[in-house]
Specification:
Helix content: 25-40%
Order of helices and strands: EEHEEEEEEEHEHEHEHEEHEH
Strand content: 25-35%
Distance between the termini: 25 Å
Number of domains: 2
Radius of gyration: 22 Å
Number of strands: 15
Structural class: alpha+beta
Shape: globular
Largest sheet: 9 strands, antiparallel
Number of helices: 7
Low-confidence stretches: none
Mean pLDDT: 83
């Protein structure tokens, strides 16, 4: 048995000045319409020395809309074949190419999508973002598209219910400004560091009470900042020490890496190694995963 993994994302439009906004509720249906109207040449795009192709479609058994994006493997990288008698030969697909595709499946009313990749070969989220941006006409604008991973609901609850954060460590990639839209020492520190580093250096900042007992007001401030940073999707890494009420007037501390934990919202299902899944079977499996995700 093999496993496939479904991950969950939401789109964010990032402007050149660093500001971020959620697209309108019709984003995916509009994207589906645009992509469906492009010819095949317009849907073939190179990204980081690889060739990508995509299409917009709808399931035949159920009217599930999807966008399929994948890597077209260069023929120099093709595998060979082996027949039942053990003879190895070159792969010949009669002029066709190998396509390793992933599915982007919109669901719900909050522009969220489920993404499932191929069993073999990886279609990165960065490649999907790039392909979508190019096909949707964002290439020559000051706007880029990001697919921000959904926060694990269990972790989100812990972050919201914590009585504070005793330690916060954040890495911002070079050239990235942080706008928390809150008046705090955290934002001031990042603004100062960003101004000093310019666009050439990553910014790493840690806030900690050390061995002192955390002050409630400042622990709450770090908690709010951690939540804002995680929601922004702008940070490369966010480590927190969550202060969780133990019910006896004290607290316990849990360590979490918010970006890693956020990306790990996955649902797995079994696939027979020797069987091929049709598009409808994949879409049914994805929607089963969506149901499980909603129930978390």
């Amino acid at each position: 048995m093999s496993t496939k993994t479904v991950k969950f994302f939401r789109p964010v439009l990032v402007h050149q000045d660093g500001s971020r906004e959620d697209p309108n509720d019709d984003f995916w249906s509009d994207a589906h319409t645009v992509i469906a109207g492009l010819d095949s040449k317009e849907r073939g795009i190179n990204y980081r020395a690889a060739s990508y192709f995509g299409e917009a479609g709808t399931g035949s058994a159920r009217a599930y809309q999807y966008i399929r994006v994948g890597r077209v493997r260069y023929r120099a990288d093709w595998p060979e074949t082996i027949d039942p008698n053990g003879h190895v030969d070159e792969l010949n697909l009669d002029g066709r190419d190998i396509f390793e595709g992933g599915y982007v499946v919109p669901f719900g009313t909050e522009t969220r999508v489920a993404v499932i990749g191929p069993i073999r070969g990886l279609v990165s989220v960065n490649a999907i973002e790039w392909w979508l941006g190019q096909t949707l006409g964002l290439a020559n604008t000051d706007v880029t598209l990001e697919l921000v991973p959904e926060v694990d609901p269990a972790l989100a609850r812990k972050l919201n219910e914590a009585i504070g954060v005793s330690r916060l460590s954040v890495r911002m990639p070079k050239g990235t400004a942080l706008n928390l839209d809150v008046d705090s020492q955290v934002e001031e520190a990042f603004a100062t560091a960003h101004e000093a580093s310019g666009d050439d250096l990553n910014v790493d900042i840690a806030f900690s009470f050390g061995h002192q007992r955390p002050q409630p007001q400042k622990a709450s401030m770090l908690q709010k900042a951690a939540r804002k940073i995680a929601e922004s999707g702008a940070a490369e890494r966010v480590d927190v020490s969550l202060m969780l009420d133990n019910g006896d007037g004290g607290y316990t501390v849990e360590q979490h890496e918010l970006i890693r934990d956020r990306v790990a919202v996955t649902v797995e299902f079994n696939v027979e190694d020797d069987s091929r899944l049709s598009t409808d079977e994949i879409l049914d499996a994805v929607h089963t995963a969506i149901t499980k995700f909603r129930a978390r």
